[in-house]
Structures are given as structure tokens and as C-alpha cells.
Design a protein that fits this description.
Tet_transcr_reg_TetR-rel_C_sf; Tetracycline Repressor, domain 2; transcription regulation; HTH_TetR; single chain; TetR/AcrR family transcriptional regulator; DNA binding; mainly alpha
Length: 201
Amino acid sequence: MDKKLSKAQRTRQFIIETTAPIFNVKGYEGTSMSDITEATGLTKGSIYGNFENKEEVALAAFDHNYGIIKKAITEEIARCRSYQEKLMVYANVYHSFNGHSEFIKGGCPILNTAVEADDTNPPLRGKAASAIQSWRNAIMNLIKAGAASGEFKSDIDLERTALSVIALIEGGVMLSKVTHNHANLDQVLKTVAIIINELKA
């Protein structure tokens, strides 16, 4: 935790980092204030002194969990040379949700939040939707840059390809989680690799 932050900021960050895994495992409805106070060791008064309500904690927790994924992807993409390798980073990072090296407890926060908050919590659903849109744009930009460099074909349907990759990855994570069969995600990610390989000029 950044020591340059004020005491209030450090407390707020502590609450977010401590509760983020809980929200990602139990969901918004399944996480109680008792869960939050027990995990942090703080009183309800301390929690509400830093956040207006439980929903505000959940929104911040989502941002924290999603930020972990974005950081991992950004750092890995920076190490890649080809655009094909850069696109495969998404499959490789999400492969870590297969249960063997899960770096976020509870799995993909986008999927978890989207499923739970679909019709019940517009602010949380909005967070998930925004994350999907950002992901779509990032993939489209990589494909566009790959096409401009001559590595990819020039007539690729950017949005269709990006959405297909996202749907496959998230669907694979969901199948793996529901069936407790991590091989399902492995199989889906092979299809993602095929799609990316077919982009090559």
C-alpha cells in the first residue's frame, strides 16, 4: 500500500483490497456488512466513514479486481513483438482462471459481475459493460494496427472478431467454472488461437 497516501486514503484502499476477493467470490448480494467488518477488522462506522454504502464498496472492489487483469494484460502485451502474440495474451491471461494458477480469487470479475448484476444492479452492470467495451476496443485496435503493419489481412471485420474472441474467452471461463472441468476452457482457448492465427496475411 502506498505510504504517500493520507490515513483516510490508506484505510479506504485497505478496505477495497481486503473486500475485493470477497465480492468476487460471494457476489454483491452474498457479501454482507458482517463479511466486510470481519475481513477488515473495522467497525461498520469505519466502513461507512469511507464509503456511502455497500454498493460503493462493491463498485470500488470491481475496479480493483478488473485493474489486476488490465495490469497483467498490459505488461504482457508490452513484452510481445508481433500483433499475433499480443492478441494471444488475452487467452493466456484468462487461462490463469483455469484453477491451477488463479491470480484473482473467484475467477473473472467481469463475468461474475455481469451475471449477478444483469437485471438487479445497474451501476455494477454498467461497470461490467464498460469493461467489455474497453476490452473490445483494445482488441480492435490491435487488429487494426496489425493490419496496418501488414501482419494481418486488411479486410478483417474488427468488431465481429473482437466480440467473438471475448465471447469465447468468457464463455470458456463460465463453462470451466460451472462444470468444474478446466479442460473446457482449454478447448475454447484453442479456438481463440485458431481465430487469431487466421488473421495473418
